[in-house]
């Protein structure tokens, strides 16, 4: 049976395209042969099948149909530099608790993430895998998930499922996972990843050498439509002045500081989904801010905190983990109760008010409406900063992220910062789509009207 015919048969058998109903559990494929093997792309043929696959892609943010056909144990080629193969790692690396949060993921994607951790990790280093379900309502994430784990001899003694009784969001769900973690080290992973050979030991070696290190793997890309495994374009993260995470080029000074092509890179801001850290250190520096909502901005806040309070964040080049950057984000359709919508922008305001000192004005310059947002009590986070003796944000910019410091009024990069308003007409200088720079009604929301 050809791949196209097989895909159609899978669709017919499972009724997976009846999107107005709950999709039936897929037939998981565990033999590491066939479509998608070695990280190759899998293309869908046939107009009807492509249309159905697109509908599921829009729903999940990736091609569920393709995922369901690819083996849970598919092999990914070794992504490491050949120099990494010559590295020797200590025998006393710490055991880890792997914490994964999921909410309405496709079953095959969650299981492939779990399988890849087990398949590509030395068994003695995995203390447990904690799957925290943030109140999913997909039935295949209930009994079918538990059945697969309980009947798999490799998984049943290692994998534990923790169920939230209401939606908590990624941040508080991760805190729940850490509270249950038994290993001395914690590795946070998203639930839509694939680990590659040798991914774990380099991360653990870095935190063993310095227990105030946060070690991040190179985050490779898994295509959302074909599940092709691809190399990344960037190795380090930063932030824009609206506190959005961005990928950045590694500057010349950082490249020159390293003695080897595989030495870790200092990273100003981590992407946040995938990293290793000692549990004690995670708790010592304040874990996550529990008053932050859902997810978004917690990685930027934690990066500021780690660097300013004496730690460091590294991209470990000998560790590679593939990640699906979903085109749809289930967490963003979150409601805390029946009456109140959550504004995740509060996370950025809390980060700015606690950590950015005078530079918080750049956030408010970008998004003036955030000046009026209610961000709750930050006294405990301010006390944490004082207790840990953390450095200023000026120090962070000068020593960790000088490229961002260059783009400030203080450095002379800008003559001024704010909107340019004609007081007589009430119009502001703006970027108008298709027309370039022009005049538009002043809206007070920042953006191109800075």
From TrEMBL:
Domain Glycosyltransferase 2-like residues, every copy: 97-282
Cofactor names: Mn(2+)
Enzyme nomenclature, EC number: 2.4.1.-
Keywords of the record: Disulfide bond, Glycoprotein, Glycosyltransferase, Golgi apparatus, Lectin, Manganese, Membrane, Signal-anchor, Transferase, Transmembrane, Transmembrane helix
Pathway per the UniProt entry: Protein modification; protein glycosylation
Record's subcellular location: Endomembrane system; Golgi apparatus membrane
Record's bilayer topology term: Single-pass type II membrane protein
Keyword Membrane: yes
Presence of the UniProt keyword Disulfide bond in the record: yes
Pfam families cross-referenced by the UniProt entry: Glycos_transf_2
InterPro entries found in the cross-reference section: GalNAc-T (IPR045885), Glyco_trans_2-like (IPR001173), Nucleotide-diphossugar_trans (IPR029044), Ricin_B-like_lectins (IPR035992)
Similarity field: Belongs to the glycosyltransferase 2 family. GalNAc-T subfamily.
PANTHER family referenced in this protein's UniProt entry, alphabetically: N-ACETYLGALACTOSAMINYLTRANSFERASE, POLYPEPTIDE N-ACETYLGALACTOSAMINYLTRANSFERASE 1
Protein's recorded name: Polypeptide N-acetylgalactosaminyltransferase
